[in-house]
Amino acid sequence: MRVRAGRMCALTALAHRVYHPRAMSRTGQTWRRASWMVIGLIACLATHSCDRSRSDSAAAATGHRKIASLVPAATDMLVGMGATDHLVAVSNFESAPEVADLPRVGDYQTTDWETLARLRPDAMVVQVAPDHLPPGLQERARGLGIELVNVRINRLEDVFDNIQRLGAVAGELEKGRIATRTLRERLDKLKAECAIRPSVRTLIVRDESGREVIGPGNFLDDLLTVVNATNVAGALDKPYPSIDRETLTTLKPDAVIVLLPAAKRETLELSRRFWASMTDVPAVRRGRVCAINDAYALRPGPRLGDLAQRIADCLAEGGSAGGAATTRRIETKAQEHKE
């Protein structure tokens, strides 16, 4: 058997995937890591035939498929449907306690093929634009007998579709169907409840300085429709645009939802100060600025029902900020003045 050593395959992520955490800095010597990878692959491939056959036989006998997920949203879907036991590795960006002890095998820059060769998952979940999918990624996965599952999760319907798809990948069709039905029914119920309220002109922000907002054509824009809100950034030309203070003032939102996943106290305080200074924004004058810092706040997955409920509570006239410790109404009414 010939072994061709290559460099680690780079995964190119689509720009503006809001639930992808920021790129992490890399440390260590590239040549040293590559050398260990090659050594690991040689050792692995030397025993590929017998080890893989034993693994495949065990999987066939039990029907239990092993999955490596390099997509945090996909990990959430598998965990949410009750298929956590199928996960053998996750991305470098995972924060869910259910997968805290699993190996981290990659991000949107590198893939740890050495660890994957040792774990031998049956499938690996990635999210890369089809026209940006590196041939080397497919070849490497094929060489290790790993099914490459490339998901697309942009809109709310994509969430429903991929929960079921990942259920099928895990061999848990019924769990996937149940999770999909549960989420859809919850959102349908909330939509009916919110339909009797007046629509609210709303802006969703995803940073502490009011620059990164949610535009049209994505799952959060769809979620605003569920809670009977009008996205004031819906006329902008990008799903995840950046705006300046002047544009923010021009949009004139009557409510602002600030999504800051797992934000620290310092970040929340910076956000509070920013919005308290924006007295020309109607939402600020009326005290209708809410911050939500659940870890899943920007991820399309099974917790969208929770997120939609929090947003609906924030938008309810005279309502609370959602009743959860991770949802708070930003105090801005001290700056109130007449329009």
Description:
The structure is a single chain. The chain has helices spanning 30-46, 48-62, 72-80, 113-119, 135-143, 156-169, 173-194, 219-226, 245-251, 265-277, 282-285, 304-315; strands spanning 67-69, 87-90, 123-126, 147-150, 200-205, 229-231, 255-259, 289-292, 327-329. The longest helix has 22 residues, at 173-194. β3 (123-126), α5 (135-143) and β4 (147-150) form a beta-alpha-beta unit. The termini are far apart. With 339 residues, it is α/β, with parallel strands linked by helices. It has a 5-stranded mixed sheet, sandwiched between helices. α6 runs antiparallel to α7 (173-194) and α6 (156-169) crosses α8. The chain contains 12 helices and 9 strands.
| Amino-to-carboxy terminus distance | 77 Å
Describe the largest sheet. Answer: 5 strands, mixed
Strand proportion, as a percent range, falls in: 5-15%
Can you tell me the overall shape? globular
Figure out the total of helices.
Answer: 12
Low-confidence residue ranges: 1-62, 318-327, 331-339
What string, H for helix and E for strand, traces the elements in order? HHEHEHEHEHHEHEHEHHEHE
Mean pLDDT: 81
- Rounded radius of gyration (Å): 22 Å
Q: What class do helices, strands and sheet pairing give?
A: alpha/beta
Extended strand count: 9
